[in-house]
């Protein structure tokens, strides 16, 4: 009797070991290990905003265990801004997900291939220029044009959105007080941001996601769809203004985490 029981025990242990190996292999293949390091989410704001515009999204990403960086985009021109962001990215080890809002989309498009470890791109109501194209050429497709005020400064011309029309143009789904605060604190952008030509198409080799904002009066939804279709981005649409990261942070966070996974 002892011999058959020993054989049975050995067979049982072997079967359990094989089962455990299979489960482990499946988990590895599907990325189901909870202890796997998450990529760093790098947020790049656009014109007439700053890093604080990402605050609701940052809070949610951190809650879900993602390391987050929010870059202060200089807004001095696509060429110089790309160089600045590329230098910043080179200090971040490991896998990275780049997220660009509005003009920030053009910056991540050009910076993505210059550093190692960028696993995906996420465009939040973002510009996605092709090689040789300018943000200004894409912006001109939106009707009506933005109500901008220009100021001559050392080093060129800077523009802001007319504060009296800021909410309608940029943040129509925020309450008037919040929109007024954004209008007051908006950062001006140098016109080189829209006249410098794009030189790299990061979306050609890096998987891309995009959020199209249907109530956007800064970049019209049709222009956004044109760009996301051309980039073959996995696209989601949401009823929101251009300030979607403030009005719909759950939708923005959800798309970023899709790209991160």
From TrEMBL:
GO-annotated molecular function: hydrolase activity
InterPro entries found in the cross-reference section: AB_hydrolase_1, AB_hydrolase_fold, Sec-Metab_Biosynth_Hydrolase
Residues spanning the signal sequence: 1-29
UniProt keyword list: Hydrolase, Signal
Stretches assigned to the AB hydrolase-1 domain: 41-252
PANTHER family reported in the protein's UniProt record: AB HYDROLASE-1 DOMAIN-CONTAINING PROTEIN-RELATED, ESTERASE_LIPASE_THIOESTERASE DOMAIN-CONTAINING PROTEIN
The protein, known as: Alpha/beta hydrolase
Species annotation: Amycolatopsis bartoniae
